[in-house]
Write a structure and sequence with these properties.
about 150 residues, alpha+beta, 2 domains, about 45% helix, elongated
Length: about 150
């Protein structure tokens, strides 16, 4: 019974966070509660079941999140960062840069191939989480920003 009550409390807490992790742990605790009710398992066995289901569930959530990254689905013109200028600092790989914006270092990606160098400027056209989507000023003026 304790396992099911704990599962319910974590489920309710998950409604306020929206991360899926508490939902996974809640489901794992519910499975332990069902195991205890149906098979009269011991507390140690229930802990092992809850731990195993939690680890497997969290791995599944992480793999799903990597395949389905969050996208900024709002209208780009509603974004207060849209059209703002950043200064390119260092190229990390082909499309990923470290940029200076709002007095700190951010990461930014270019969807279009660029031939810019450190010290040049670019414009923000959106973001994926904390990674800024960038374009060159020439492409922005042409309207190739989406």
């Amino acid at each position: 019974m304790v396992w099911c009550i704990s599962a319910l409390l974590l489920f309710l807490l998950e409604l306020f966070t929206g991360t899926f992790y508490l939902l996974v742990i809640s489901a794992a605790m519910l499975s332990s509660g069902l195991s205890e009710w149906l098979f009269n398992t011991s507390t140690i066995t229930n802990m092992i079941i809850a731990t195993a289901f939690s680890v497997v569930g969290i791995v599944i959530v992480r793999l799903w999140q990597r395949k389905h990254p969050r996208r900024n689905l709002s209208n780009p013109t509603d974004d207060t960062d849209y059209g703002q200028t950043v200064i390119l600092i260092d190229q990390l790989n082909e499309n990923l840069w470290q940029v200076r914006y709002r007095g700190t270092i951010w990461q930014g990606t270019f969807a279009d191939p660029i031939t810019l160098k450190s010290g040049d400027t670019a414009l923000i056209i959106g973001h994926n989480g904390n990674v800024l989507n960038l374009t060159s000023a020439a492409n922005f003026e042409k309207g190739n920003n989406l």
